[in-house]
Amino acid sequence: MTAITDRAPIVSTGAARKRPRGIGGAVTRWVGIAIVAVYCLAPFYWMVVSSFRTTNDIFDTSLLPTTWSLESYAQVFDSSNDFGRSLLNSLIVAGITTVLALVLGIFAAYAIARLNFRFKSAILAVIIATSMFPGIAVVVPLLRLFTDIGWINTYQAMIVPSLSFAIPLAVWNLTTFMKQLPHDLEQAAMIDGCTKWQAFTKILLPLAAPGVFTTAILTFIHSWNEFIIALSMANDPAIQTATVAISKFTGASDFQAPFGAQMAAGVVVTIPLMIVVLVFQRRIVEGLTSGATK
Hints:
By secondary structure, the chain is an all-alpha fold. The protein has helices at residues 2-51, 71-76, 83-114, 120-130, 135-149, 155-179, 183-191, 196-207, 209-224, 228-233, 242-247, 259-279, 281-293.
């Protein structure tokens, strides 16, 4: 009884000592989160606020518009800009690029992560190295090639170069994820009668779904925001993507930059991506962290 009475003050003292550190750590953590959030969201906030200013107030530095206006959005969707067509073009290019990158990336990642052959690390390093080239470095030779074969102003002229950057991203993410999946499940399925293909499609691929989904989101965002290749390979307004169309908005005169319309178009282009990320936030986090925790 005496021993129990003696231990109680020791436990209480320890908890009292930990409490200040816990509060300080929590405050530091929340301050850090607030700084990062403000740093990341401030440009988007300013773009949204500027999109609701009138043309005369576009250089106003107040935190909120003096006069709220939809004038810039009306300019964006004016029939002369054909911005809806540009959004459809972006969706086509980003969607096809994502699907092709996923199909090729899944098979490449499976081979590198699950099969035994020589120079796997060297092959993966070469694949990743190809994504390190700046986009502008490959534009000139590709422009010459596509001009000779008649691909200028076509979707494939934007999709094929985008794949050279999307596939390494997909292969890297999926290889890292598939390496963490246990080999025993695949071997058990083959012992039960599955072929190698059936074990891949019915066992391994469903388990890799979070990683595939995360890779699809990241690849789509990368392709949706691509600018240099789309600007170089398409000069026909009917085939241009949204990012290129925004850069070619014109003001009332040649010397007037349409900042309000460009801000409004930037909001229109960004909102779909934000909705996708917010809706599938849980799956994206699962895909990014599952490889590190298994």
